[in-house]
Amino acid sequence: MSSEGAVSVIQVVGLFVAGPLLVGWMRKVRCLMEGRVGPPVHQVLRDTVKQIRKERTRPEQASWVFAAAPVVLIASTAAVAWLIPLVSTRTSWGASADLFAVVYLMLVGSVAMALGALDSGTAFGGMGASRAVMIGALAEPALLVAILALAIPVHSSNLPVVISGGISHPLWLASPQRILAFGAFLIVVLAETGRLPVDNPTTHLELTMIHEAMVLEYAGGDIALVTVGEAARLALLLGLMANLFLPWGIATHLSMGSIAVGLAVLIVKVAGFGTLVAAGEVFIAKVRLFRVPELMAGAFVLSVLAVVAAVVGA
Amino acid sequence: MNHWLIPADALVGLAGSICGAVLPTRFRLTAAALITSVAAGIGLLASVLVLSGAEAVSFHSSQVIPLTGVSFSIDRLGALFTATIAVVSLCSSVYAIGYGGPGLSSRRSASVLPLFVTSMLLVPAAASMTTFLFVWEAMALGSLVLVLADHAKRPEVASAGQWYGVLTQVGAAAILLALLLLSTRTGNLSFTAIRLHAHAIPMSVRSAAFVLAAIGFGSKAGAVPLHVWLPRAHPEAPGPISALMSAGMVNLGIYGLVRVGIWMLPGGPSWWWIALITIGAASALFGVLHSSTETDLKRLLAYSTTDNLGLVLLGVGASGLFAATGHRTLSAVALLASLLHVVFHAGFKGVLFLAAGSMQKATGTKDLDRLGGLLSTMPVTGLFFLIGGMTISALPPFSGFVSEWLLLQAFLHGSTSHNTYLTVAMPLAVAVFALTGGLTMVTFTKAIGIALLGRPRSEEAGTAVEVPASMWIPTGLLASSSLVFGIAPFLLVPSVLGAVRVATGSTVHSPLQGGWQVGLSGVHGGILPLAFAVLLVVAIVAVAGGRKVSQRGPVRHAEPWGCGREIQTARMQYTATSFAEPLVRVFDDVLRPDHDLDVSHSAESRFYIEAIAFHTEREDAFERHAYRPAGRLVAAWGDIARRVPNGNIHRYLAFGMAALIVVLILFA
Description:
The structure holds 2 protein chains of 2 kinds.
Chain A: H1 3-33, H2 43-52, E1 57-59, H3 64-83, H4 99-119, H5 123-151, H6 159-168, H7 176-192, H8 211-214, H9 221-245, H10 256-283, H11 292-313
Helix pairs in contact in A: 1-3, 1-9, 1-10, 2-9, 3-4, 3-9, 4-5, 5-7, 5-11, 7-9, 7-11, 9-10
Chain B: H1 5-22, H2 25-51, E1 57-61, E2 70-74, H3 76-99, H4 101-105, H5 107-122, H6 129-147, H7 155-186, H8 191-196, H9 203-220, H10 230-236, H11 239-264, H12 270-293, H13 297-324, H14 328-363, H15 374-377, H16 379-392, H17 399-415, H18 420-452, H19 459-462, H20 469-487, H21 493-504, H22 529-550, E3 556-558, H23 576-586, H24 588-591, E4 594-601, E5 609-617, H25 621-643, H26 649-667
Antiparallel strand pairs in B: 1-2, 4-5
Helix pairs in contact in B: 1-2, 1-5, 2-3, 2-5, 3-5, 3-11, 3-14, 3-20, 3-21, 5-6, 6-7, 6-11, 7-9, 7-10, 9-11, 10-11, 10-13, 11-13, 11-14, 12-13, 12-18, 13-14, 13-18, 14-16, 14-17, 14-20, 14-21, 16-18, 16-20, 17-18, 17-20
């Protein structure tokens, strides 16, 4: 196997281990800040192992889509993790690591989960799916326009090019377009991963749920896949954001040393971002569902301003 | 040089029409549809000959129509459209045999179907103004008769036919005027001659012709504000006819616009293209908003045609704007992406309409709120609809993703230009594109989730049976094209590039990287659709295998969670209406829905409720605020005008006298 392939394998495997740990870490941070002890960081992994041993169930009359949805969620996350520069800018098929393509590959997983929820044939599944796809659709303009702002200075939407551009021009990172695009990205990532203020990941009240309502019917190995998939998605998006806006430390050569450094720096960056997100969540509450469009409109305005800044600055 | 393929195609079409008219009911549709598919096959052969560069195909004769004669000649631009329409027609006409039904098997429909398809195939081949208008009108009238196939059963069909009839004639009149303006200035009916002398035509005349052509062809492509016929006529037609119209005929609107706006009148000013971009963006957003909140399956698909063709118009407009600002390569990329999207859209919209027709045939309804669980009862049709829905949502590794990605690349590189128009228009185009894409995903998550998944919402949906192979095989053929071209777009790119070269009259090098990789040449990076497919498939197989191995015991079928309620019914599921409700609320100002809640109380006590009826309706804003007032105005004017001719012979003589005096004063 080529060294690029090895990097990709490290990224995929690492992501699915690190994702649950990240979620555990974020819970721990939140608990500590709220004055509670909280479960250990590896609790999510322990739960996953337990869930795999439990019985899988399937609602009556559900079709194969219901069982396929968690698998597709994992597959789309894994495909993105294989392509994009997380540990190193040199991944297998890195020429295809296009920012727009990454968005659409992630959408494959989102659509699969929404279809799985609708297949359960219950009110909650439909409710969660309806809300999730609405938020996803409204987040799309902000996301793609923010990507445009990042791609304009380097004349390419290829991720290694965008990230290398950031490394070789450190001043870009403090430029208005990057800062504005970062704001837009952050809001979109929070919305897409079901974090506060869009969705409450720890809620237990069906009517306020978005993401949890979609996965109510999954059990056993299926819920394990969903949990790991969602956690890996969060880690992936935070890692991508970290590399886009703070690219230092990412390996640009394929030596063992630089990859080890890249991995270590990535873990620090993602954990740092996770800590900030978790700390922020202590202080804010979930907004009403029909205020979310306003939040997305705000993100869209930020991204448009970022493009304006990029065009003026180019 | 081949001279016999075009007359052969026309003759086969005529033969099919005669078969449809004279044969007994039992064989009528089968014979007509089979001969139609032969005509489509000949069209495909002719266009493949042209696209591969093997042979030129043309036919000129002064004997067929007196005075003007007919003149056909297929170039690469026309061949791309003929080939696309031929494939859709081939699949749809074979599908029509199994679809049948009294409306489609009637003498009228069976005799018109071959004529409609043949004229549609010949539109891109027409090489002179008169020939073009002749086949264009034959196509428009043919489709009108076919839309009316079921008029005896449902009153909505007649109303749809009226809307379609009026708007298609308005469009044809605009096209006629546009072509007349150009041909009188050049004194020649031949398209090539008009193109050669186009630079001698004053700019004001060219602009007038472009605006008229945009109106005429735009209405055929379902662009706002002339789209109102489309969501009425396409859904009311029988299944295969809807597919022929929405996947085939609408493309000719784009063809006409490219033929006149880019090929015939090269070097158009920026404002033409900015206007076209605006119209395209408005159509895309308007179409997708309506389709995402629509609950009638075929209307949803029809609105999504407006949306997709709007994106194509946006791309064609961007291509023109690039050319007008001196970015020739980008112009080629944008046109290439738009034409690719036309071809891909024909494929996936054909799948969706054919599969929707199968569902309607099997359940007797196209109301999403009465469907559900069809993936279990109709597994094959359901799978194809699922593929179509994923393709239209631009999910990799299907074809819709490739064309949309290329269009995004054109917008991205346009944004980096130093031209003010481009730096303003391109980011906005990306935003429109993104919102359209997001809402398309909502639309098809809803269509798939409500129609195919969950529990059946009506008895008919629960007892539906799979349609015969003669219906699902053509659907599957189109569905497989989505996957094949999605993974290996290079199979199609040279043909589309040939069309782009003809349209722009340039010999640009391929603006794309070669091979499996799709990307702009000279730019690092791109996409490798094959890699996406391989990664997804390998990961799916690995994860599903892992789950199977680690699983203990079989999967248990369980009652889903119902908040502690014992019995769950299908009525408790979300419907298409409830699924789209949050969006209707968010876009309240645009959609302006009318809600109606009727609560009837029990006779004994008004504290007990006997029945609640909820009714919601959305009317097209253009219909309400533009067409209805215009219709009232015309009717009022007609009332006034009717008072003038009262049957009195003296009055008519006086009119004649007055007219004569006026003429004498003016011209003597």
